[in-house]
Amino acid sequence: MAVNVSLPFDFKRKDIVFKRDPDGQTHFNIAQQWVSHSPDGFEWGYVGSGPADFALNILRVFDLDFKLAFLLHHHLEREFLVRFPKEGGAIFGGVINAWIGEECATPDIVRWLVSRSFACSNFEEWRELLSEHHPEVTP
C-alpha cells in the first residue's frame, strides 16, 4: 500500500501530520521517498517496519544526510511514533528540530559524527559547541 499524501504540508513549520479514518485509511502530509524497512508504507503506534520508515522519512524532511537519518530513525520512532493512538496526531516541526539537535549531541552520535567529519550544521560552529560540551571527542 502506497503512502496516501493527502494532508497539507507547511514547508516553513515542517509539522508532521498523520491520521486514520474510521474505515482504516491512513493520510499523511509527507511522502515515502526513502524505503528501508516497509515497501507497504508508513504506520505509527508500535515498533515495526512501517513506523521505522515513517521516522526515516520524517528525518528526510529536516534535510539530514541519509546516513545520519538512518542512524537516528529508530530513536525517533521510539521517542515519538510509538506513543500515538491509532487515530493519529501531529508532531510540531520545532519539536523535531530540537530533538535532532539533542540527539546529535549524545556521546554515541558525537563519536559517529566525529569519525566521519560530519556536522549537523555549520562545521566550525558545531566543532566549537562540541569542544565546549564534549572535549574528549573534539576533532
Verbal overview:
With 139 residues, the chain is mainly alpha-helical. It has two domains: 1-93, no CATH class; 104-139, no CATH class. It is 42% helix and 9% strand. It contains five helices and three strands; from the N terminus they run ββααβααα. The chain has helices at residues 49-61, 66-79, 93-103, 107-115, 123-133; strands at residues 16-20, 26-28, 88-91. It has a three-stranded antiparallel β-sheet. Helix 1 (49-61) packs across helix 2. The longest helix has 14 residues, at 66-79. It is globular. The N and C termini lie far apart (45 Å). Mean pLDDT is 83; it is low at 117-121.
Distinctive features:
139 residues, mainly alpha, 9% strand
By DSSP (H or I, 4+ residues per run), the number of helices equals: 5
Helix share of residues? 40-55%
Strand order of the largest sheet: 2-1-3
Query: Main β-sheet, in a few words?
Result: 3 strands, antiparallel
Gyration radius over CA:
16 Å
N→C terminal distance: 45 Å
The best one-word shape is: globular
Task: Give a nutshell description of this structure.
The chain is mainly alpha-helical.
